[in-house]
Write a structure and sequence with these properties.
Strand content of chain B: 15-25%
Number of domains of chain A: 1
Domain PTS EIIB type-2 (chain B): 3-95
Structural class of chain A: alpha/beta
Shape of chain B: globular
Distance between the termini of chain B: 10 Å
CATH class of chain A: Alpha Beta
Keywords (chain B): Transferase
Number of strands of chain B: 4
GO molecular function (chain B): protein-N(PI)-phosphohistidine-sugar phosphotransferase activity
Order of helices and strands of chain A: EHHEEEEHHH
Oligomer: heterodimer
Helix content of chain A: 25-40%
Helix content of chain B: 40-55%
Protein name (chain B): PTS system, galactitol-specific IIB component
InterPro entries (chain B): PTS_EIIB-like_sf, PTS_EIIB_2, PTS_EIIB_2/3
Chain lengths: 157, 96
Protein backbone atom coordinates (compact mmCIF):
# COMPACT_ATOMS: atom_id res chain seq x y z
CA UNK A 1 0.00 0.00 0.00
CA UNK A 2 1.08 3.55 -0.63
CA UNK A 3 2.19 5.60 2.34
CA UNK A 4 2.15 9.20 3.37
CA UNK A 5 4.99 9.95 0.95
CA UNK A 6 2.40 10.49 -1.77
CA UNK A 7 1.20 13.65 0.00
CA UNK A 8 3.37 16.03 -2.00
CA UNK A 9 4.86 19.15 -0.47
CA UNK A 10 5.62 20.51 -3.94
CA UNK A 11 1.95 20.10 -4.89
CA UNK A 12 0.65 21.80 -1.75
CA UNK A 13 -1.03 25.19 -2.13
CA UNK A 14 -2.84 27.61 0.14
CA UNK A 15 -4.91 30.70 -0.55
CA UNK A 16 -5.35 29.77 -4.17
CA UNK A 17 -7.17 32.76 -5.59
CA UNK A 18 -9.84 31.39 -7.94
CA UNK A 19 -13.42 32.16 -8.94
CA UNK A 20 -14.48 28.64 -9.84
CA UNK A 21 -13.36 25.04 -9.65
CA UNK A 22 -12.15 24.94 -13.24
CA UNK A 23 -9.47 27.48 -12.35
CA UNK A 24 -8.28 25.14 -9.60
CA UNK A 25 -7.77 22.45 -12.26
CA UNK A 26 -6.04 24.96 -14.56
CA UNK A 27 -3.52 26.16 -11.98
CA UNK A 28 -2.85 22.87 -10.23
CA UNK A 29 -3.04 20.83 -13.45
CA UNK A 30 -0.24 22.95 -14.94
CA UNK A 31 1.87 22.30 -11.85
CA UNK A 32 1.21 18.54 -11.93
CA UNK A 33 2.22 18.46 -15.59
CA UNK A 34 5.35 20.58 -15.08
CA UNK A 35 6.53 18.40 -12.18
CA UNK A 36 5.90 15.18 -14.10
CA UNK A 37 2.96 13.75 -12.13
CA UNK A 38 0.46 13.70 -14.99
CA UNK A 39 0.43 13.68 -18.77
CA UNK A 40 -1.51 15.85 -21.22
CA UNK A 41 -4.66 13.82 -20.70
CA UNK A 42 -5.06 15.08 -17.15
CA UNK A 43 -6.54 18.52 -17.65
CA UNK A 44 -9.17 17.69 -20.29
CA UNK A 45 -10.23 14.47 -18.56
CA UNK A 46 -10.48 15.89 -15.05
CA UNK A 47 -12.63 18.76 -16.32
CA UNK A 48 -14.88 16.41 -18.22
CA UNK A 49 -15.16 13.98 -15.36
CA UNK A 50 -15.86 16.60 -12.75
CA UNK A 51 -18.61 18.09 -14.92
CA UNK A 52 -20.20 14.67 -15.32
CA UNK A 53 -19.52 13.20 -11.87
CA UNK A 54 -18.85 15.95 -9.36
CA UNK A 55 -16.71 15.16 -6.32
CA UNK A 56 -17.63 17.42 -3.40
CA UNK A 57 -18.62 15.49 -0.29
CA UNK A 58 -20.75 16.78 2.57
CA UNK A 59 -18.31 15.79 5.29
CA UNK A 60 -18.83 17.70 8.51
CA UNK A 61 -17.94 20.33 9.56
CA UNK A 62 -16.68 21.39 6.08
CA UNK A 63 -17.44 19.96 2.66
CA UNK A 64 -14.33 18.70 0.88
CA UNK A 65 -13.82 18.03 -2.83
CA UNK A 66 -11.78 15.04 -4.01
CA UNK A 67 -11.32 15.52 -7.78
CA UNK A 68 -9.73 12.57 -9.54
CA UNK A 69 -9.54 11.20 -13.04
CA UNK A 70 -8.60 8.09 -14.97
CA UNK A 71 -5.41 6.20 -14.17
CA UNK A 72 -4.01 6.62 -17.69
CA UNK A 73 -3.55 10.36 -17.07
CA UNK A 74 -1.35 9.75 -14.02
CA UNK A 75 2.42 9.21 -14.19
CA UNK A 76 3.31 9.33 -10.47
CA UNK A 77 0.63 8.87 -7.78
CA UNK A 78 -0.03 11.88 -5.58
CA UNK A 79 -2.27 13.59 -3.09
CA UNK A 80 -2.21 17.38 -3.53
CA UNK A 81 -3.68 19.32 -0.58
CA UNK A 82 -5.10 22.64 -1.70
CA UNK A 83 -6.80 25.36 0.31
CA UNK A 84 -8.61 28.10 -1.58
CA UNK A 85 -8.59 31.76 -0.63
CA UNK A 86 -12.38 31.90 -0.81
CA UNK A 87 -14.94 29.15 -1.17
CA UNK A 88 -16.11 28.22 -4.66
CA UNK A 89 -19.20 26.29 -5.70
CA UNK A 90 -18.48 22.63 -6.18
CA UNK A 91 -20.92 19.98 -7.40
CA UNK A 92 -22.30 17.51 -4.84
CA UNK A 93 -21.27 13.94 -5.59
CA UNK A 94 -24.59 12.58 -4.41
CA UNK A 95 -26.95 15.04 -6.04
CA UNK A 96 -26.48 16.59 -9.50
CA UNK A 97 -28.77 19.49 -8.56
CA UNK A 98 -26.87 20.49 -5.46
CA UNK A 99 -23.63 22.41 -4.84
CA UNK A 100 -21.41 22.96 -1.81
CA UNK A 101 -19.17 25.88 -0.94
CA UNK A 102 -15.77 24.30 -0.89
CA UNK A 103 -12.52 25.70 0.47
CA UNK A 104 -10.52 22.52 0.92
CA UNK A 105 -9.65 20.42 -2.10
CA UNK A 106 -7.83 17.14 -1.97
CA UNK A 107 -6.63 16.46 -5.52
CA UNK A 108 -5.97 12.79 -6.11
CA UNK A 109 -3.85 11.05 -8.70
CA UNK A 110 -3.87 7.28 -8.51
CA UNK A 111 -2.45 4.83 -11.03
CA UNK A 112 -3.35 1.46 -9.68
CA UNK A 113 -7.10 0.84 -9.50
CA UNK A 114 -6.60 -1.00 -6.20
CA UNK A 115 -4.68 1.68 -4.34
CA UNK A 116 -7.39 4.33 -4.28
CA UNK A 117 -9.74 2.12 -2.27
CA UNK A 118 -7.52 2.15 0.81
CA UNK A 119 -6.51 5.77 0.31
CA UNK A 120 -10.03 7.09 -0.11
CA UNK A 121 -11.02 5.32 3.09
CA UNK A 122 -8.06 6.83 4.93
CA UNK A 123 -9.01 10.30 3.67
CA UNK A 124 -12.67 9.87 4.59
CA UNK A 125 -11.71 8.66 8.05
CA UNK A 126 -9.64 11.81 8.63
CA UNK A 127 -12.10 14.23 7.00
CA UNK A 128 -14.51 13.36 9.81
CA UNK A 129 -12.11 14.44 12.54
CA UNK A 130 -12.32 18.11 13.53
CA UNK A 131 -8.99 17.82 15.35
CA UNK A 132 -7.36 17.11 11.99
CA UNK A 133 -9.54 19.36 9.80
CA UNK A 134 -9.55 22.54 11.91
CA UNK A 135 -5.76 23.11 11.82
CA UNK A 136 -5.93 22.91 8.01
CA UNK A 137 -8.12 26.00 8.01
CA UNK A 138 -6.04 27.75 10.67
CA UNK A 139 -2.61 27.20 9.08
CA UNK A 140 -0.97 30.49 8.11
CA UNK A 141 1.72 29.29 5.75
CA UNK A 142 2.04 26.55 3.17
CA UNK A 143 4.48 24.73 5.46
CA UNK A 144 2.05 24.84 8.37
CA UNK A 145 -0.74 23.65 6.10
CA UNK A 146 1.34 20.78 4.75
CA UNK A 147 2.52 19.78 8.24
CA UNK A 148 -1.08 19.78 9.48
CA UNK A 149 -2.19 17.76 6.48
CA UNK A 150 0.42 15.00 6.84
CA UNK A 151 -0.55 14.59 10.49
CA UNK A 152 -3.51 12.56 9.28
CA UNK A 153 -3.79 9.09 10.73
CA UNK A 154 -2.77 6.62 8.06
CA UNK A 155 -5.58 4.25 8.90
CA UNK A 156 -9.33 3.89 8.59
CA UNK A 157 -12.18 2.25 10.44
CA UNK B 1 -25.37 -18.25 -0.63
CA UNK B 2 -24.54 -14.74 0.39
CA UNK B 3 -27.19 -12.13 -0.31
CA UNK B 4 -26.14 -9.67 -3.00
CA UNK B 5 -26.08 -5.90 -2.55
CA UNK B 6 -25.17 -3.54 -5.38
CA UNK B 7 -23.36 -0.22 -5.20
CA UNK B 8 -22.88 1.93 -8.30
CA UNK B 9 -21.11 5.16 -9.14
CA UNK B 10 -20.40 6.98 -12.38
CA UNK B 11 -17.20 5.21 -13.25
CA UNK B 12 -17.71 2.07 -11.20
CA UNK B 13 -14.25 2.62 -9.82
CA UNK B 14 -13.15 4.95 -7.09
CA UNK B 15 -16.17 5.78 -5.02
CA UNK B 16 -18.33 2.70 -5.38
CA UNK B 17 -15.45 0.33 -4.64
CA UNK B 18 -14.53 2.36 -1.59
CA UNK B 19 -18.09 2.15 -0.31
CA UNK B 20 -18.27 -1.57 -1.16
CA UNK B 21 -15.09 -2.26 0.76
CA UNK B 22 -16.31 -0.35 3.80
CA UNK B 23 -19.78 -1.93 3.85
CA UNK B 24 -18.39 -5.43 3.33
CA UNK B 25 -16.22 -4.90 6.37
CA UNK B 26 -19.17 -3.70 8.47
CA UNK B 27 -21.25 -6.71 7.39
CA UNK B 28 -18.44 -9.17 8.06
CA UNK B 29 -17.93 -7.72 11.54
CA UNK B 30 -21.61 -8.30 12.26
CA UNK B 31 -21.43 -11.80 10.71
CA UNK B 32 -24.08 -10.98 8.12
CA UNK B 33 -23.90 -13.22 5.08
CA UNK B 34 -24.04 -10.66 2.29
CA UNK B 35 -21.67 -9.40 -0.36
CA UNK B 36 -21.53 -5.87 -1.72
CA UNK B 37 -20.55 -5.59 -5.36
CA UNK B 38 -19.44 -2.36 -7.07
CA UNK B 39 -20.72 -1.91 -10.61
CA UNK B 40 -20.82 0.71 -13.31
CA UNK B 41 -23.90 2.92 -13.28
CA UNK B 42 -24.55 2.08 -16.94
CA UNK B 43 -25.02 -1.61 -16.26
CA UNK B 44 -26.66 -1.37 -12.86
CA UNK B 45 -30.18 -2.47 -13.86
CA UNK B 46 -28.96 -5.90 -14.85
CA UNK B 47 -27.36 -6.44 -11.43
CA UNK B 48 -30.32 -5.22 -9.42
CA UNK B 49 -32.54 -8.14 -10.48
CA UNK B 50 -31.27 -10.49 -7.79
CA UNK B 51 -30.01 -7.98 -5.23
CA UNK B 52 -31.40 -7.29 -1.75
CA UNK B 53 -30.60 -3.58 -1.80
CA UNK B 54 -29.12 -0.85 -3.97
CA UNK B 55 -26.55 1.52 -2.51
CA UNK B 56 -26.46 4.68 -4.60
CA UNK B 57 -23.71 7.28 -4.81
CA UNK B 58 -25.53 9.62 -7.17
CA UNK B 59 -29.17 10.08 -6.28
CA UNK B 60 -31.48 9.76 -9.23
CA UNK B 61 -35.16 10.29 -9.70
CA UNK B 62 -35.98 6.75 -10.74
CA UNK B 63 -37.91 4.47 -8.46
CA UNK B 64 -36.69 0.98 -7.75
CA UNK B 65 -38.37 -2.23 -6.63
CA UNK B 66 -35.77 -2.75 -3.93
CA UNK B 67 -34.63 -0.72 -0.91
CA UNK B 68 -32.29 2.14 -1.82
CA UNK B 69 -29.49 3.10 0.60
CA UNK B 70 -27.55 6.38 0.59
CA UNK B 71 -23.94 5.42 -0.13
CA UNK B 72 -22.45 8.84 0.59
CA UNK B 73 -23.21 8.21 4.26
CA UNK B 74 -20.57 5.47 4.25
CA UNK B 75 -18.01 7.89 2.83
CA UNK B 76 -18.69 10.83 5.08
CA UNK B 77 -19.86 8.98 8.18
CA UNK B 78 -22.79 11.41 8.38
CA UNK B 79 -25.94 9.33 8.86
CA UNK B 80 -23.99 6.12 8.41
CA UNK B 81 -25.63 4.33 11.32
CA UNK B 82 -29.15 4.86 9.97
CA UNK B 83 -28.21 3.81 6.44
CA UNK B 84 -26.42 0.74 7.73
CA UNK B 85 -29.44 -0.28 9.80
CA UNK B 86 -31.65 0.16 6.76
CA UNK B 87 -29.29 -2.04 4.76
CA UNK B 88 -29.19 -4.79 7.38
CA UNK B 89 -32.99 -4.79 7.54
CA UNK B 90 -33.18 -5.10 3.72
CA UNK B 91 -30.75 -8.03 3.77
CA UNK B 92 -32.62 -9.83 6.54
CA UNK B 93 -35.98 -9.35 4.85
CA UNK B 94 -34.74 -10.40 1.43
CA UNK B 95 -36.56 -13.48 0.20
CA UNK B 96 -34.57 -14.08 -2.97
Amino acid sequence: MLGKEIIMRELTAIDLDVDNYEQVFGIMGARFLEKGYVNEEYLPTIKEREAQYPTALPVEPYPIAIPHTMATAIIKPFIAPVRLKNTVEWGDMSDPDNKFNVKLVCMLGFKDPGEHIELLQILMYNFQKPEWVNPLFEAKTEDEFYDAFVKMEWTHD
Amino acid sequence: MAVKVIVACGSGVATSQTVASKVNRLLAADKIDAKVEAVDLKSVDRYLKDAAAYITIVRDKKTYDLPVIDGIAFLTGVGQKQQYEKLVKAIKEYKG
